[in-house]
Specification:
With 464 residues, the chain is an alpha+beta fold. The protein has helices at 9-23, 28-42, 71-78, 83-88, 116-156, 163-178, 200-213, 254-257, 260-263, 271-310, 322-334, 349-356, 358-375, 399-415, 439-455, and strands at 48-53, 59-65, 92-98, 101-108, 182-187, 190-195, 219-221, 229-236, 239-247, 339-346, 381-386, 389-395, 426-432, 461-463. Helix 5 (116-156) packs parallel to helix 10. Bound molecules: guanosine-5'-triphosphate.
């Protein structure tokens, strides 16, 4: 029959079947198993070994068939670590080609069979093609993986988080998707790393160089001590924010890596991987900008809260300030609620300042405010009117209750041990809101009462 190899008929059918199986293998291990089984049969039932070529140029036994018999032979296979060992082993060798040159070798002890070469070469070529296809499929899976991580990344940035949190959360998956050992993110002079990355100093140095010379490149492969690194710019609306760098140890053409003169020009990344990295860098740039906006918003809210409190709180004593106290009094008058105003002033406070200094005077004002606040109820209003004068607004209480409170305050202050040797006292002017009162009349009465308390000898309460 013309065009049909002169192989025994049953072997020819078997081989066609085996070719079909190899070409339809779903995973690399399945492919190796089918290839090895077929070769085993063809090679007179000799054991078949499959070696993968590492980035170092060394070999590693990746598969052998059959596994169960001839242990001594397997030991001999395991002793092979490089091509020279393999060549010296006298195994019959075939190259298995990957997408970037020799992927590995197939070896078996010499065997006698009819016209094997064409068939064996055909089987191995088919296996190589299938392997390339499986790898391409794997790349598609990686792209899909990247897409699903992207969704998670966008979900993450809706919550308060940081660049380090993002790296911790997604780093392992990104390493898996990109088949990298480490990830670095350079942003605003900081370097955030995940996994195995080169030391900071040379990496910073190279990124600085990139900023100067490669600022317009979307991605660049690093060299020197950072070789294997692929840097993609983090950009938002044409503004460069920093760099995303992925690190890999194996160049695309591992066979050439042993040649030191070539090392600097070897590529570690396929164009497809480069464009996936750019996609990830774009996502990260958006995520980081979003984080920045969230962070700034939080700061702004805090600043606003602080400003808001500054408009209401007296910075020295931390009680309400005069502006807010005035508003509270106006509101109380307009709400027609029954309330009393207590205005008090520390007796002879000028002497304290003069004797102990202004700083001690400030301490006394703070202590006084703390002491008075402790004596009051939560819904009483206590504010600093200015200098050593304070105002208390007490709602819904009788005149007697107000007098009791004022006297208790005088007593508590007199009994309290302040930071100075001299005893401290206060004088209190008390007044209750009258129908048709305006704030001014209320203040005048309270002030008048306090004046009378001072005139009567201080450390007492007066009611007008
Ligand atoms: N340390 C300090 N002193 C202040 C502050 N504000 C005002 N003063 C001082 O408080 C003193 C108030 O004195 P006055 O209330 O006028 O007089 P006094 O010595 O208390 O005498 P009487 O009120 O009659 O008992 C003045 O010496 C002010 O300079 C402040 O924030 N800190």
């Amino acid at each position: 029959m013309s065009g049909v190899p002169s192989t025994p008929a049953n072997t020819f059918d078997d081989l066609c079947h085996a070719l079909g199986l190899i070409s339809s293998s779903k995973t690399p291990p399945e492919l190796f198993e089918r290839l090895a089984k077929t070769l085993h049969k063809l090679a007179d039932n000799q054991p078949i070994a499959l070696y993968r070529r590492l980035s170092t140029g060394n070999l590693r036994l990746a598969y052998c068939y059959p596994l169960e018999n001839n242990l001594a032979f397997h030991h001999a296979l395991l002793a092979i670590h490089c091509y020279d060992d393999l060549a010296a082993s006298k195994l019959q060798l075939y190259e298995l080609n990957g997408e970037h040159g020799v992927w590995g070798y197939i070896g078996h002890p010499p065997a006698a069979y009819a016209e094997p070469d064409k068939w064996i070469q055909l089987l191995i070529d088919s296996a190589s093609q299938r392997l390339r296809l499986l790898k391409a499929e794997c790349m598609v899976t990686r792209q899909l993986g990247l897409k699903s991580r992207r969704r998670l990344l966008y979900r993450d940035i809706k919550q308060p988080t940081s660049i380090d949190d993002i790296l911790q959360h997604h780093g392992a998956s990104w390493c898996d998707i990109f088949q990298t050992e480490g990830i670095a993110l350079a942003y605003q002079g900081d370097l955030h790393c995940f996994g195995k990355c080169p030391s900071r100093h040379p990496l910073f140095h190279q990124l600085q160089q990139l900023n100067q010379h490669n600022a317009h490149d979307e991605m660049t492969e690093l060299n020197g001590s950072c070789q294997g690194g692929m840097a993609a710019q983090l950009r938002v609306a044409n503004a460069a924010l920093g760099w995303l760098v992925l690190f890999r140890q194996q160049p695309l053409l591992p066979a050439l890596a042993a040649d030191t003169t070539l090392q600097g020009s070897l590529s570690y990344w396929t164009p497809l991987e480069a464009s996936m990295t750019i996609e990830l860098a774009d996502d990260l740039a958006v995520a980081i900008t979003a984080l920045e906006v969230v962070h700034l918003n939080r700061q702004l809210t805090k600043t606003n809260q602080r400003l808001e409190s500054l408009t209401r709180i007296d910075p020295l004593t931390k009680c309400w300030n005069r502006y807010y106290t005035e508003r509270v009094i106006e509101d109380a008058i307009h709400s027609s609620v029954n309330f009393a105003m207590l205005m008090f002033d520390i007796d002879d406070f000028k002497n304290i300042n003069d004797t102990y200094g202004h700083a001690t005077g400030d301490d006394i004002l703070r202590d006084m405010a703390f002491l008075v606040q402790k004596t009051l109820r939560d819904d009483d209003h206590f504010g600093r009117w200015g200098g050593d004068e304070f105002i208390i607004i007490v709602k819904r209480v009788s005149q007697d209750a107000c007098l009791q409170l004022a006297n208790r305050l005088c007593h508590n202050v007199e009994q309290h041990i302040f930071s100075i040797a001299d005893p401290l006292t206060i004088s209190i002017g008390l007044t209750l809101v009258q129908p048709d009162d305006q704030p001014r009349q209320l203040f005048e009465r309270a002030d008048q009462s306090m004046y009378l308390a001072k005139m009567a000898g201080k450390n007492q309460v007066f009611l007008c």
